[in-house]
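Revision sheet: structure tokens.
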Amino acid sequence: MDIMTANFTSSLCPETPIEGRHLAELANLMAAEWGESELRDLDLAMALHIPPNRISHFRHAKTSYRAANTPRKGKARHDIPMVHPHQAILIRLLMRHPKYARLVKRPSNTEVWDIIAPFLPGSGPVRSAFTAGRDQPVQKKGFAPVFGRAAISSYKMLPGDLSTSGETSLTVIRLQMVIMSRFADIFRDCFKRYAANHMFSGDRKNPLYESTTQDWTILRERDSLTGWMNEPLLQAFWAEVHEKWEEWFNQEYLSVCRREALSRNLDPEEVFVQGNWLNKSPVTDEEYLHKDPGSRPITGARNDAFATFRLQAGITSSEMFWVLGVQVKAVYRYRSRGKIRIEAPTSILLRYFMSNLNDLNYFLEQPPSGTWLLQKIMGIDPAFKQSQLSPLFGSTKLSSYNFAAETHSCPHFARRLASIFARELPHEPQIYWQIRECVEDEVRARGLDVKTFWEEGRWNG
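Predicted:
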């Protein structure tokens, strides 16, 4: 093994316990896999299941083994930043297999514009009172309003230089992810049906006509995937896809935008043209109660919409912040403003998810139960014991019995790693052994004996 290979291997398999300093290397590996020049703290928080406001603190954390075995000088143990075993295992796994982070790729504004432009209000046959009776060309200024922004922002989001990505907030990116994911599902379903009914047997073996992509990026392959279709078939295919795209966009997505406009006492069709979403007036109790339930204003104080969303969706705070594309300080700012409406993009996204909770599956996987995990693991490794379940996911032997109980949901410490295991198992049967290898490497790095660890399930000796 040459020096370069040895250094690369040692960086992916650190011989010392995982600490916060390893986060920078993980971020670089994930960015290379994800196709992003830079990962935000919000992305790392989601990947590691850490509250986003603790990421900067986490970068300076020491291994919990060192903290547990170091005399404390005036600081309580919970005040000392630590990398706990479940976090160390996850970091090791993602350093070796960054694809397992499976964060949703960000579409560019241009990609989204190219697909939704024909369906924007005011394009094609006009539905707006401002342009009644005339056909309108598709104009850029109609782009930003459907994401809760002013019409003039369209030109910042869609600059003339196509080499630039344009200015977009994280919440707007999440709205775009929803649209592209829904459109991808429609495309995928139609493509599978057309391929089953019309593709020649010889073409079925051509890898150009088969996509393994599970997310919205299948839309980037749409031209190559449909390369086998003749012109009449291709036209029929796209006519059906576009019809279904427009139906969903109008009846589902724009319906939420219209309800958001009504919640702000605005004319929806005027908002789609001008993008003037602002209404800074406090929401009175009378106004709130007289609104239709589907178009009631979302404020920072009223019934705490963020807490309600978390509860209904069954997600954690780090998952909520990533899904909504908001920082912790933004949520506190909304709450401090009391009865003032939250910003339109966030309100649209929150309103959309509250009506379409299943679409959270585009962003998150619900973790499996400990019972399911234990059954699958024992099927792979018959020597595996119930008492080893929690140690495998970064906790102690004692908690294994609650973890494996049918009446208990997946514990917080195991949530992210268990979700990765469940997602990857069908097409990556080695996932159990990969996780176990990371566990044992961390055990050795802490100076502990592997055999004793599996017997006693203790991380701190």
